[in-house]
Amino acid sequence: MKFSSGKWRYWWEEWIKPILIAAVLALFIRTFIVQPFKIPSNSMYPTLKPGDRIFVSKFIYGAKIPFTDLSLPPVRDPETGDIVVFLSPIEKKKYLVKRFIACGGQKIEIKDGSIFIDGRKIEGSPMNKLFYYNRGKYGMEDEVITVPEGHFYVLGDNSANSMDSRYWGFVPDKNMAGKAFVIHWPIRRMRLLSEGD
């Protein structure tokens, strides 16, 4: 079966070209702007539950340029309390969702269920409503941990059931994927993740 040039033009204009444009736009959005993720565990309960589907802002911390060590300029740096998505420092290609606690150069201590950064207790909600347990090599009682430069420290909201920086240490800055900003599924759980979450 042979196509005339007119038929090829029709297929190109009506089908192939729109599909290619849509695919390129979707790839651009997913790489540089927003990416969906599904919550696999209860380590962030009650803020995030297993099965929740979230959108993550890629550009806010400076989206990575694929196949390079370069990033786009960030809108802002991660802040204590942000819910972040990042590549696991111990399991390649696995993304994790935790709460950003501290960046390189800051000192962390978990004491009486509260978090202290550089000697000051974190007071912001919801972290002041959560209890953080002294567990793991990097979360022991009466231990002050200094986050190495070029890394950050994360904790799960469900401190009794979360494998986080207390156990495996620090996450390289280059592993950061973005900031969770909305639960979009299931419908009954749909909401923006505000600073108070």
Secondary-structure blueprint of this entry?
Elements: H1 5-32, E1 34-38, E2 53-57, E3 83-87, E4 95-103, E5 107-111, E6 114-117, E7 120-121, E8 145-146, E9 151-155, H2 165-168, E10 171-172, E11 176-185, E12 191-192
Antiparallel strand pairs: 1-2, 2-11, 3-4, 3-11, 4-9, 5-6, 5-8, 6-7, 9-10, 11-12
Number of strands: 12
Q: What average pLDDT do the residues reach?
A: 90
The end-to-end span amounts to 60 Å
How would you characterize the largest beta sheet?
8 strands, antiparallel
**CATH homologous superfamily classification of the largest domain:** Umud Fragment, subunit A
CATH architecture of the largest domain: Ribbon
Residue ranges: pLDDT <50 for 5 or more in a row? none
Protein architecture, described:
There is one protein chain. By secondary structure, the chain is an alpha+beta fold. It has helices spanning 5-32, 165-168, and strands at residues 34-38, 53-57, 83-87, 95-103, 107-111, 114-117, 120-121, 145-146, 151-155, 171-172, 176-185, 191-192. Strands 1, 2, 3, 4, 9, 10, 11 and 12 form an eight-stranded antiparallel sheet that branches. A four-stranded antiparallel sheet has the order 7-6-5-8, with no helix packed on it. The N and C termini lie far apart (60 Å).
